[in-house]
Structure prediction request, 1311 residues.
Amino acid sequence: MKKVPTVCPYCGCGCGLFLHVEGGRVIGVSPNRNHPVNQGSLCVKGWNCHEFIHHPDRLKTPLIRKNGKLIESSWQEALQYVAKRLSETISRYGPDSVGVLSSAKCTNEENYLLMKFTRAVLGTNNIDHCARLCHSSTVGGLAAAFGSGAMTNSISEIKDARVLFVIGSNTTEQHPMIAMHMLEAVDRGATLIVADPRRTKIADFATIYLQHRSGTDVALLMGIMHVILAEHLVDRDFVMRRTENFHAFEESLREFTPERVEKLTGVKASDIRKVARVYATEKRSMLFYAMGITQHITGVDNVKALANLVMLTGHIGLPCSGINPLRGQNNVQGACDMGALPNVYTGYQKVTDPKARRKFERAWKRRLPERAGLTVVEMTEAALEGRLKAMYIMGENPLLSDPDLNRVREAMEKLEFLVVQDIFLSETAEFADVVLPAATFAEKNGTFTNTERRVQLIRRAVLPPGGAMPDWKIITGLSSLMGYPMQYRDTYEVMEEIALLTPSYGGILHYRLDNGFGLQWPCPDRDHPGTPYLHRKKFARGLGTFLPVQFRMPAELPDEEFPFVLNTGRTGVHYHTGTMCRRTTVLEREEPEPFVEINPRDAEKLEIREGQRVRVSSRRGSIVLRARLRDNTSEGVVFIPFHFREAAANLLTNPALDPEVKIPEYKVCAVRVEPLEVVKRPKRPRRVDIEELRIT
Amino acid sequence: MRSVVNIYTPLKGKIEEARELCPDVKLYRVRVPKEVHYYPGQFFMLSLWGYGEVPISVCSLDDTQTLEFTVRKAGFVTSAIHQLQAGDTIWLRGPYGRRFPLEMSYHRDVVVVAGGIGLAPLRAVIQYLLKERRKVKRVTLLYGSRTPDGLLYREEYDTWRASDVKVVLTVDCPSDGWRGNVGVVTTLWHQVEGELREAVAYVCGPPVMIKAALTDLFLLGMPADRIVTTLEAHMKCGVGKCGHCYNDGRFICTDGPVFTYKEIKEWDLTL
Amino acid sequence: MKGWILPKNSLSYWLRQLRKDSDLIGPLRTPDGDIVFESVEKIHEIVLDPPASLPSVKEFFLPQYETVFVFKTDTVRPIQEKRKRVIFGLRSCDVAALRLLDRFFLDSQPDPYYSERRKNTLLISVVCNRPDPTCFCVGIGAGPYLKEGFDIQLTDLGDRYMVEIGSPRGRRAVREYSFVFQRPRKTDLEDQFEVQLSSTARFQQRINLEGVRSLILSQRVDEGFWQEVANRCIQCGGCVYVCPLCSCFTVTDRVYQEHIERVRLWDACLFKGFTRLAGGILPNDAPVSRTKRWFYHKLIYYPEGIGGFGCVGCGRCAVVCPSKIDMATVVLNIKRVSENAVSG
Prediction:
């Protein structure tokens, strides 16, 4: 038995664990006791992340669609075919007719190589990945305010904080090991404030819980800031010395009195005052948020409002004091850092900046496109309009994860050529012209960057099954066939190239990551110890900017026809589209089927019983699933997890986008709920009175 | 320590007959390669490679080479079993668990209380009572189902009646032409002749029904150790190892599945 | 005089001999500083005073993931692990736990997989001179040293080990290489006694499970207490996975192209699906009933059924529990709450 130290492939916590290997098979997992994030613990997904690795459904050979069927083929045939079709598409329709989706599940090195392949070989900036759908608002909003869009603190600081303000994050279920640190802080006497339209488990530990209406985050935050301003709780020194544009911002708060905000959000004015006072007056205050903030058409505004809040109170730039977007995927931070985005190269160097472009052109020896490319949802649009002809998708599953699936499906059907590279035959792969079998986290070397910017090494424990190959090898192979040889011995050589081109990763090299628990960027040179918290003494962009925002309602509000608000999200045992966890015995058994959470009072009105099948429909589609009566959503709101292909929540969701970063509004759309199979039971005869019988 | 026999290896059986008793319920007669001795109340782990194993109680008596099982289509494995037909192979291991204490019924009145598929293990009990008919006094079967279609072993009732078993039927949702009782099975106590407190009861059905029947019988004066039931639980091994059926210090598979009310009075059966 | 003396100088030679026909498992330091039990290649790298292994020694007898049958073209083949193993450096609590597991797995309807592994494994346990802060075996009689039940028990006396033999298997492993062992002198026994005393004195917590058992049995712990414990639980399953005595498993079939594998995997009673009946009925839907089940099993039913607490005080649940509701914490809380109830 060997135990290989590596990093969990599920969420952005980036927990350290060991894969237990015997006879060429991974047969178990155990937590790393010293790891700063999980400290010897794991969540149920982590404990079970060994099972899917050897699942019989793993893709083992490349598949090519012939006469409508996916047929096994050799690597040579598959890659040559892909190279030929991509080249043809480019020569016929131009490079911008190809779109690429990179993956927040793959390593930094793989994201970098696919990004390089897209820009240098295909010649387009049309590359994006699922960060668009989760934290593009963060990248947009925080970059504008501070110049850098990432978690500013470290996870290990949480336990020492005095105030934790968690908004729009189901931390206990989605980032269990971060919740562990929060719980420890609460045990040590910290005040926990939770704001979420859906009451999740983290609220059980809260001192103050605010249940605001879906999509009213801006109003709530403006109300809190109004109080801070009115009660002179502003950190004047901080505002003066470290920020700009305060006066314009101050104006924007004027009308958001707690009383007016109460009307907008449903949160009592007294609670708003209380939260404002607690948050502003304590010094070690940490702010946390996740999809509940970002997945709105006002996603960027929400993030900007949060940025304003931390600047107003000076709660940033110190240990235990900052703003912390909790990133979802194990390497979504890294995929963004690696420039798997349409507008930036690695380290957020803009493609429109001629200096940056020249740097990459010199390094890659190719002319690079000048205009920013298409985002995920824009690629769907472009495909529908016939502008996008081919797509290359690495480890993503848009046919379950993107909003308004019927349209996505239509778009995929319109494509002339679709390549999917994945470990299982996902819903998207089933649609592809070519499927390339990739390796899991246990079968390759590389790095993941967790939510606290910690770049960590993952290590190969076993060989991939059959002919499956690590994603980076597939990309280099394909690139060479397309006339641009990429030669790397292993991923450490790729990392060296990344370090050379990326200031914030300048000192991050595999040999430095081999002992200990990685390095937190920015880490500009080989002697730099990494940065536990950001914006010390000065912001990345110099002065922090206050960005006034307007309150806007969600794009689609309930009406007579669709009277409920639909909120979507995840459950604690499943992860995204379920390709891994739904192939894990224990996890699948916990939540084997789709469900909709509905408030018992609504259920009563609609005559829906626990476990009954109901139809949920929106303007875009309809699904059938079982009802679960729970009072953690308020009346008029229903919640559906989006993992299940049997009843994909995203058939219902609204593809309305944030105007700035194009994130879709997953968290609010209008739906109708109807009970199915109404069983009219006859009135049963009364149970016989036992006493009566006993006497006779 | 010497090597031990692999208790988890299933035997290969052959399905001689697969008969639909009602929608979603089938009776399987399975021939096994070697003699197997079993008693009413015991169960086997039916096994389908590629699907898994399920505990199913045996619903026949005596024949050591052909066993009968009544299987309701409820989950992954039972749905797969429902695809099988006569001539197909099915794997099984057992028998497991405690048998019904049937000697207890000698020289007493017997009440058999069943709900839905719960009649399956009790069918073996009834067959036993028929065989030992002279040793027991009056036998009453109270049997409830949701619909008349759901009543199992309908063609056998006449045989039972011929041996002086009083068969009382009831349904929740009567269809046209239904002339029996309507309502839950626990509305039928007055149909039992004689002193309940002197009788023996064998009970099986859905958890809610078992709970109601056990408490009713107890309140009607029947001693707790003469009220006998059999419980269903999630099981993976059948031999007290996997832990799934463990409840309040006992394994349903090895300490049960047959329990007297006295033994499980504290359990909340409908948790 | 009982026992043998093994000079530390000779340890690696002896282990090397034992390794000739076995896989040697021992505690090794990983690059990032943790210590894990794995196959030993370089014997000199073995850590001689390791913390409690994670998950626990049960992983070598009831693996986390194990193929138990292969089914191919109408024939069934049980997969039995025949490989011999020597596990060096496990703790007394681990040995005590295995003795209890033996009763569970071997006394009636013996489990063939556990039995085979147990038969093929030699245990060389080491008396804990330095218990972890989470350890409390001393109150349960499962450590820091054992009087019986081990194959071979070593006590670190500085430059040498006191070697005690507790089974025929252990005797063979010593007798075959008897030339590296010496007869102990009186001073060795004195030293051993001193080590035992000082080790016992080093425990940071002492926990009386018996007292808590009677508190629970006399209804002094109310539902509200368990509700609070359950509220903190995030159902990670960690306590069950690392517990050397938790042995629940699930079984699943995996259909490969050419064959079918029947696999057994660790399972945990803390999951709501653990007791799910076909048709979706969940008998233990309330988290509190599951949390209670775990503690009751260990504190109440295990003593009744197996004849010892379902806890050996290894403290592993305190390491892995993200919510700090491990055995020691909960037991101490029960005591505190009921004492307050009495005095108040």
Notes: Residues 682-686 of chain A have pLDDT under 50 and may be disordered. The longest strand of chain A covers residues 622-629. Residues 2-54 of chain A form a domain with the N-terminal domain of TfIIb fold (CATH 2.20.25.90).
